[in-house]
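Might you be able to review the protein record set out just below?
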Amino acid sequence: QVQLVESGGGSVQAGGSLRLSCLASGYTYNMYCMAWFRQAPGKEREGVASIDSGGVPTYADSVKGRFTISVGNAKNTLFLQMDSLKPEDTAMYYCAADLWVGSSQRLDKAPYSYWGQGTQVTVSS
């Protein structure tokens, strides 16, 4: 049973940084594609960044150059380093994983079977 637990959310002023973590259990990391999604109130859940089992990242245009996705040395923790945060980054952030996701679908929510409960990020102006 795959379990994903996010942490690291909080409140920060615009221009600040946060680092989100997702602790994974119940599977072998290098078999999975993992991603970060976010959902703001009244909006659809959108893909932010993903990383495949080979370590290749994909980013949404809105976060390129500001966010960095990575995997810890133990291969059971996914990170999202968020710099130069903007008020429009305010959302609940979710970690997701699945066995394999096509390269054109890495930021689509439909292919991912496993989800965490989310961690709130609030950016004030």
